[in-house]
Amino acid sequence: MLAYKERKVAAGIYCLTCQPSGQRWVGGAPDLGTIKNRLWFSLRQGSEPHRELQAAWREHGMENFAFEIVEQLDDKSPAFDRDLALKERSAHWRAKLSAEPI
Q: Is the pLDDT of residue 2 over 70?
C-alpha cells in the first residue's frame, strides 16, 4: 500500500483506437498509470458513458482496441495548470488524430 501511495504519478493524454473501424477517442488523465484499467473495467461492465465507444467495444471486442499514451505532461506544474494543460492538449490531439473526446 505504501509503494502505491509513493509512486510517481504522470498526467497526460491517451488515445483509444478501434482497429477494425478506425475510430479514435482521445482523453486526458491526471494519472496515466491507472486510466487504461479504469476504461477497460467500465467497457467490460457495459457502463462506459460514451455510447459510440461502448458500441464499438461490444461489436469488435477488447482484442481489437489499442491504448496509447500520446503525450506525458511535465509533472512539476501545479494542479490548476495541469488541468488546463490536459484540456488544451486533449483538444490538440483530438484535432490531430480526428478523434472523439472521452
A: no
